[in-house]
Amino acid sequence: MKVELSAIVNNYHYLFALTLFLIGSYTMLTHPNLIKKIIGLNIMETSVFLLFVSTGYVEGGGAPIIHGEAAVGAYVNPVPHALILTGIVIAISITALALSLIIKIYEYYGTLDTDEISRLRR
Hints:
Blueprint: H1 5-10, H2 12-30, H3 34-56, H4 78-109, H5 114-121
Helix pairs in contact: 2-3, 3-4
């Protein structure tokens, strides 16, 4: 299978989104600290946002707003951008809820280490 270098260069944003997602999932899976798991989750969310926004991007495209007779040849797709605005609000809400739960967990167990919490629960 031959992959051309120009295809990789032209789609670098997809590779960057994939790299961010892998970094976030690695952080979530390998760190026992709950705060670091939330940071990993936020990195994964950011990668999904980047992926969606990059799908709506059009090279040389303008904003989908018509000003009189001056028309742009191509328009950027606004739907992914609108969806991501909603996604950002949901992501912030999830982060706030998770951090508030982490505070309660810390008050109860006195640690943020998941291995230590599992040991204390036995």
